[in-house]
Amino acid sequence: MEETISLKELLETLKKRLALIVSITLIAAIISGVVSFFFLTPIYQASTQILVNQTKNDQTAYSPSEVQTNLQLINTYNVIIKSPAILDIVADELKLGLNANQLNEKITVGSEKDSQVVNISVQDSNPDTAALIANKTAEVFQSEIVKIMNVDNVSILAKAQTGENPSPVKPRPLLNVAIALVVGLMAGVGLAFLLEYFDNTIKNEQDVEKELGLPILGIIAQIDDQQIEELKQRRAARKSAVRGETIGS
């Protein structure tokens, strides 16, 4: 016989394991909050923008073909910016104790679709260091691209700056706690149903009927000690009453 589970049974399972579900959810949120606030290092981000335009010696107006050429060059420039040819110079000039590979891991280069503006973003635990690396990378690239590709068509639009109270881009404690709440709730519900699935104990007459597939003809009620004591007192009272009637007659 195919076994089906009703919505009522699901709700009863959740109600029975509610303490377990709430506990797992709260534990996950607390652990996430503690790790996010006290153990993860805040990471700050600074960005600078450069513009890929026509060569400065060319005073003619832009043409669609020149713009398209510059757009195609952007992908090449994105690779060159993170190459050792640029980052080795940045590392030597900044003297931060970082090599080209370490700088490469901190730097992200990207551009909007069909845009000649390239964005150089740097992430570091120190906001001033992030801004310093971003600006120096843009400056070195602007000067070195002339030697590498024999072109002079890069301009710095905006330098990276550090505000008075910079906010870290990661970690985001509130977001982490919210995610932990959802994950903890899902884990708690899943564990509750898993425990219920592997629980083969028979607790009531409905379980007996379900396991055997036979109708219940009768049940034996449970009587606690207090009820037994009350029954004894009632029997003793009846016996006393019967004796009294017998003696009186």
From TrEMBL:
GO terms for cellular component: plasma membrane. The lineage of its organism: Bacteria, Bacillati, Bacillota, Bacilli, Bacillales. The chain crosses the membrane at residues 18-40, 174-195. Residues 142-194 form the Tyrosine-protein kinase G-rich domain. Belongs to the CpsC/CapA family. It is found in: Cell membrane. It comes from the Bacteria. It is a multi-pass membrane protein. The keyword Ribosomal protein does not apply. It comes from Neobacillus rhizophilus. Its main location: membrane. Residues 3-94 form the Polysaccharide chain length determinant N-terminal domain. This is Capsular biosynthesis protein. GO terms for molecular function: protein tyrosine kinase activity. Keywords: Cell membrane, Membrane, Transmembrane, Transmembrane helix.
